[in-house]
Fold this sequence. Notes:
25% of the residues lie in helices and 26% in strands. It has eleven helices and 21 strands.
Amino acid sequence: MAKGKKTVYFCQNCGHEETKWLGQCPACKxxxxxxxxxxxxxxxxxxxxxDREIQIVSLSEVNADDQDRITTGMAELDRxxxxxxxxxxxxxxxxxxxxxxxxxxxxxxxxxxENRSVLYISGEESLSQIKLRANRMGTFQENLKLLCETNLAxxxxxxxxxxxxxxxIDSIQTMYSEEVTSAxxxxxxxxxxxxVFMQLAxxxxxxxxxxxxxxxxxxxxxxxxxxxxxxxxxxxxxxRHASYRILRGVKNRFGSTNEIGVFEMxxxxxxxxxxxxxxxxxxxxxxxxGSVVACSMEGTRPLLIEIQALVCESxxxxxxxTATGTDYNRVNLLMAVLEKRIGLHLGNCDAYVxxxxxxxxxEPAIDLGIVMAIVSSYKNRPIDxxxxxxxxxxxxxxxxxxxxxxxxxxxxxxxGFETCVxxxxxxxxxxxxRGIKVIGVKNISDAMNLI
Length: 451
């Protein structure tokens, strides 16, 4: 082996490093994910050289003002980022192939290039391919510059020379450094590339968006390798066969990680969904048993969702239970509570629970909605279409309080619901809201009387 190089083993799933091959990764517990790579033992001097002296300052002398944020012109994206783009931040946008990451970032370039210098660096698409996508979105300003390059040294020199205010890297898996011997897309190359972009962002005050791909096969280093290095991690979720997309913040050093942004994919790009509750409830069946509307909170945003349940007698010895859009084990737990606390005989019934629209929710506040949907289907009695429910269900059958009940009731009133079933302990917090009937329930027995 050449001097100055050594062989190490990286986990392709999480990026864990070992000096020898292991069958199971000790960090993420995945099997057969270690690959051998040659890396340079000496430190790679790929950072930005500055002549300024190291200074130590007290915390009180540091100025941090939210007014410095840059609004993207897309309210849903600004919400997830915490109010806008922080200059000098490094943002990772991850998601499945074809979900719309490049489309979203090209739209951000379209908005910001009106009064800021933007550089879009693509390692996957040619200039003509980017132009074809841009033609569907509308007109672009001259401030948007394109670069098709994968060599890390060349990209660094261009950024240092032009000093744009915003840089898009699409994608990080295509970038390579000649000083690292492994192939592009490997853990070593992804780490080195991200480290260079992090130093560029902090040293020059440039905001950099990085696109990271996720594959089920694990052949490409996923965004989890980069999460500790970047400031913000955004995941683009959604079914490729459905029109909506959800942008979720997983890590954010400048804001909350509970916010989501909802978009709809159309011919001319992504369109913001300003009222996702109305969007999720479109097509709700009328006078159908097993259907109930519940309310979940995503950060500061209340989201109304339709919970559907189908309970029927099983033709086999072992009943089948299926949950789509929520936790399977939670559904089994709630069905056990129904059997024990109100004597509902579900042991010989198949049960299928679905959250309409393909969205996934795990908040405990939808427990009461799942319970009422199951009972409604079991008894074949439809629930009032103008009724909405929320509340956490305990193992004793009690309905417990959830956070921010006022926002949930206000959202239900805004969408025209007439009755709201809430935990009884939350009645005092929502009594100031007029124009909607609020019913408090102590346990699931009280809730069953409303069906």
